[in-house]
């Protein structure tokens, strides 16, 4: 019975990796035919980033195959599927709306995802992970209030960012189908406030992680050490992406988008090391809460 149950997540892992490869391949093909790339990365960088994210998926498969009872591998599949959705939706929307208008059904629907993509979204989820690591709970009940603020900030940002009128950042020739027009003059300051609150939450979460590490002993201290090394690198690369988007600095954005998937691999390896070497099973709680919030925010 257990053997049969353990096969299900393993099969699902290979199936998700197959879906990832199909979506990214179709997205890359459509972008090649269109002669443009996501965020104007250029094809060499786009192929390099996709290769790195694919390696991330292979590592996730290995985690699921070795420990199918742990959800960590499945979470990383969710992360790589975000990249697949980015690549596919951009290629699909651009080809169906610009290159061959009307040739692809639902091309405008793909723009909804493009309206939501961005570094702030990743920043909020990364901050939530830092706040809850390693036992799935904030450091103290007072730090739990920061978690609530982060939830509200993220939900506010996602809604407001999707309503920005005018050309989409990744598709400047196409207006956002969800744009609200003149009402944006009122909503834009609120989105800016949400971004600054998100950055403040991220900085506070880093302080929380440092305090947790100073108080920890034994296994928990080792868990935090592995996580902190990789999280620091991930925070730097994510900051490059965030700065590149906000300041419209294409060079910083390109560097950040190239390095960020590599940092995610380091984060995955370090987290897996903490799980396997130091028996970090409470990561289940972190993952469930992170995913539940992401789904509720999306709804």
Describe how the helices and strands are arranged.
Elements: H1 2-34, H2 43-66, H3 72-99, H4 107-116, H5 119-132, H6 141-162, H7 184-215, H8 218-246, H9 250-278, H10 283-298
Summarize the structure in words.
This protein has 299 residues and is an all-alpha fold. The chain is 79% helix and 0% strand. It has ten helices and no strands. Helix 5 (119-132) runs parallel beside helix 7. It is globular and about 60 Å long. The relative contact order is 0.12. Mean pLDDT is 77; it is low at 280-291 and 293-299.
Q: SSE order, as H and E?
A: HHHHHHHHHH
**Number of β-strand runs:** 0
Based on helices, strands and strand pairing, what is the structural class? mainly alpha
Over all CA atoms, what is the radius of gyration? Answer: 20 Å
Q: Roughly how many Å apart are the termini?
A: 36 Å
Largest sheet: none
Shape: globular
The stretches of 5 or more residues where confidence is low (pLDDT under 50) are 280-291, 293-299
Name the average pLDDT: 77
The helix tally amounts to 10
Oligomer: single chain
**How large is the share of residues in beta strands?**
under 5%
Q: State the helical fraction.
A: over 70%
Task: Give a concise summary.
The chain is mainly alpha-helical and 299 residues long. It contains ten helices and no strands.
Key structural traits:
299 residues; mainly alpha; 79% helix; 0% strand; globular; disordered C terminus
């Amino acid at each position: 019975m257990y053997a049969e149950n353990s096969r299900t997540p393993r099969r699902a892992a290979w199936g998700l990796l197959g879906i990832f490869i199909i979506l990214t391949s179709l997205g890359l093909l459509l972008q090649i035919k269109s002669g443009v790339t996501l965020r104007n990365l250029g094809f060499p960088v786009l192929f390099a980033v996709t290769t790195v994210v694919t390696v991330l998926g292979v590592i996730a498969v290995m985690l699921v195959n070795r420990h199918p009872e742990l959800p960590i591998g499945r979470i990383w599949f969710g992360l790589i599927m975000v990249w697949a959705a980015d690549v596919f939706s951009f290629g699909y929307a651009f080809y169906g709306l610009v290159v061959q208008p009307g040739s692809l059904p639902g091309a405008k629907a793909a723009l909804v995802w493009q309206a939501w993509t961005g570094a702030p979204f990743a920043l909020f989820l990364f901050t939530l992970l830092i706040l809850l690591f390693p036992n799935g709970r904030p450091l103290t009940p007072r730090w739990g209030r920061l978690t609530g603020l982060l939830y509200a900030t993220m939900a506010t940002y996602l809604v407001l960012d999707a309503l920005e009128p005018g050309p989409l950042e990744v598709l400047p020739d196409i207006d956002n189908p969800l744009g609200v027009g003149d009402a944006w003059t009122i909503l834009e300051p609120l989105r800016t406030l949400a971004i600054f609150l998100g950055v403040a939450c991220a900085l506070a979460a880093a302080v929380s992680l440092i305090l947790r590490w100073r108080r920890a002993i034994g296994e928990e201290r080792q868990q935090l050490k592995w996580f902190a090394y990789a999280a620091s690198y991930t925070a730097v690369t994510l900051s490059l992406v965030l700065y590149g988007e906000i300041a419209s600095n294409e060079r910083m954005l390109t560097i950040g988008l190239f390095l960020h998937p590599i940092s995610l691999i380091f984060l995955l390896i370090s987290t897996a090391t903490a799980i396997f070497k130091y028996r970090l099973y409470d990561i289940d709680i972190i993952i469930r809460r992170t995913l539940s919030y992401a789904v509720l925010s999306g709804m």
